[in-house]
């Protein structure tokens, strides 16, 4: 499949990851020898005769046929360019090519039509094995993280990933296999096997999870769905000798087998600094009916609304909530409950230090709600749009929430009344930094209000980092 060069129209190259191609730039000054070129550019009846892909090694051609098929439906040159650009983006999205370049040329050969075009995609495949190595340093601890990835494992965009973390305190690993449906990348299956250890100093708790999971993702209309099964062997222990009796009572081994379903609608233009759009995410989890010791029904939701105001400022409102209902007369486990407070939720309070506690250890709750109202404005001294200043925002916020346990023998009205009691709230201002489009950092000055006995507060400057913020 060689590149075709015709005398009537020079090849139109499109390079780089962003095709800022202006069709008017493709037309040279009219000259007699370029009359055929002008005719092609102005002709609305163009036929894409061949679409070639060069540079394939282990990738199966049938996989790429789904991604480039729309190019054949183009009716004029501008349409060809647009559809070729979209096809290029789809090919890059597969995660199996380092680079994709597009070449549009007139057709040659015995079957060439006067208005025929050939489109060629020149691809560079990712190596069979890629790796990464980095170190992480925290408070009195450090770890080495080694990652190995086999992209395009069987030639149809499958991916096998292994990550190993060796630290001064704990060792963790994870093995993941990702398989998309050809032609529908959003429909995919992920299988995981992992061992992860977490330390939760606010509860004097250490948890080691060894588990398997299977996750199916698929879109349905304007919604996205995730179906998941997870089987995990959990080992809970005390992080310190001073752990409360309530935490020691939770220590030991348990087996959790749970089915969950998540549905989301996301119309935001950005996940970190959205200026418009809304997000609704609802999650249900049912444990116990497929085996295991844990038995409960868990419901939680997240709602976010964003609206652009004057001078590039944005008003954002968010609401979280959830309920955990133990089944079979069991008592809920400390590892399954909700936690609230800290720089990523109700600011001005210590990390997860709101709600039920025993001897200074926070035990979580079976019901919670949290709301936030935020005003984001550009920095006064930012150097214009598109510059470094676009990574920062000034942040004014008002947060509120509550976390408690419920007596399920009472009615819904009593539950709502309990959630409306002892509301914690805070306000403040700060600076927000965007890290790519997946995470952000916050440095805020917080004023906590509605503090209850046992709550741990952070009055003054508070620093936070994460991927999910209230």
From TrEMBL:
Domain POTRA, residue spans: 46-126
Keyword Membrane set for record: yes
Membrane topology recorded in Swiss-Prot or TrEMBL: Multi-pass membrane protein
Recorded GO CC terms: mitochondrial outer membrane
Main location (coarse class): mitochondrion
Pfam family, one: Omp85
Family affiliation: Belongs to the SAM50/omp85 family.
Protein's cellular compartments: Mitochondrion outer membrane
Entry's Gene Ontology BP terms: mitochondrial respiratory chain complex assembly; protein insertion into mitochondrial outer membrane
Region described as Disordered: spans on this chain: 1-34
Keywords linked to the UniProt accession: Membrane, Mitochondrion, Mitochondrion outer membrane, Transmembrane, Transmembrane beta strand
Protein name as annotated: Sorting and assembly machinery component 50 homolog, like
């Amino acid at each position: 499949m060689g590149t075709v060069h015709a005398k009537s129209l020079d090849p139109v190259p499109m390079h780089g990851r962003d095709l800022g191609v202006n069709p008017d730039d493709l037309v040279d000054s009219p000259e007699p020898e370029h009359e055929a070129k002008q005719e092609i550019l102005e002709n609305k009846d163009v036929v894409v005769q061949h679409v070639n892909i060069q540079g394939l090694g282990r990738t199966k051609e049938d996989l790429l046929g789904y991604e480039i098929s729309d190019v054949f439906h183009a009716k004029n040159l501008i349409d060809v360019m647009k559809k070729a650009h979209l096809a290029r983006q789809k090919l890059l999205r597969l995660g199996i090519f380092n680079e994709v370049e597009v070449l549009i040329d007139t057709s040659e050969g015995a079957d060439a039509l006067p208005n025929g075009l050939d489109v060629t995609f020149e691809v560079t495949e990712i190596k069979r094995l890629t790796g990464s190595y980095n170190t992480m340093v925290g408070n009195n601890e450090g770890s080495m993280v080694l990652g190995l990835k086999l992209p395009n494992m069987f030639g149809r965009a499958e991916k096998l990933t292994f990550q190993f973390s060796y630290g001064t305190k704990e060792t963790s690993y994870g093995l993941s296999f990702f398989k998309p449906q050809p032609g529908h990348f959003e429909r995919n299956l992920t299988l995981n096997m992992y061992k992860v250890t977490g330390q939760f100093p606010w509860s004097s708790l250490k948890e080691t999870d060894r588990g398997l999971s299977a996750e199916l993702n698929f879109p349905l209309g304007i919604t996205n769905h995730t179906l998941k099964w997870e089987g995990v062997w959990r080992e809970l222990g005390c992080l310190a000798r001073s752990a409360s009796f309530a935490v020691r009572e939770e220590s030991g081994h348990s087996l959790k087998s749970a089915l969950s379903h998540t549905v989301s609608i996301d119309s935001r233009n950005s996940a970190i600094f959205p200026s418009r759009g809304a997000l609704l995410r609802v999650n249900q989890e049912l444990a116990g009916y497929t085996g295991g010791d844990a038995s409960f029904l868990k419901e939680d939701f997240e709602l976010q609304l964003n609206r652009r105001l004057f001078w590039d400022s944005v008003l954002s409102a968010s609401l979280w909530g959830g309920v955990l209902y133990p089944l079979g007369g069991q008592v809920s486990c400390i590892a399954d409950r909700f936690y609230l407070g800290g720089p990523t939720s109700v600011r001005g309070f210590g990390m997860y230090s709101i709600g039920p506690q025993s001897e200074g250890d926070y035990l979580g709750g079976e019901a919670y709600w949290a709301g936030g109202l935020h005003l984001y404005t550009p920095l006064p001294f930012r150097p214009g749009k598109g510059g470094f200043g676009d990574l920062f925002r000034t942040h004014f916020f008002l947060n509120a929430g509550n976390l408690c346990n419920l007596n399920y023998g009472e009615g819904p009205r009593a539950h709502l009344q309990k959630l409306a009691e002892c509301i914690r709230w805070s306000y403040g201002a700060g600076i927000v930094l965007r890290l790519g489009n997946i995470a952000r950092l916050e440095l805020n000055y917080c004023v906590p209000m509605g503090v209850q006995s046992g709550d741990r507060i952070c009055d003054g400057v508070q620093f936070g980092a994460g991927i999910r913020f209230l």
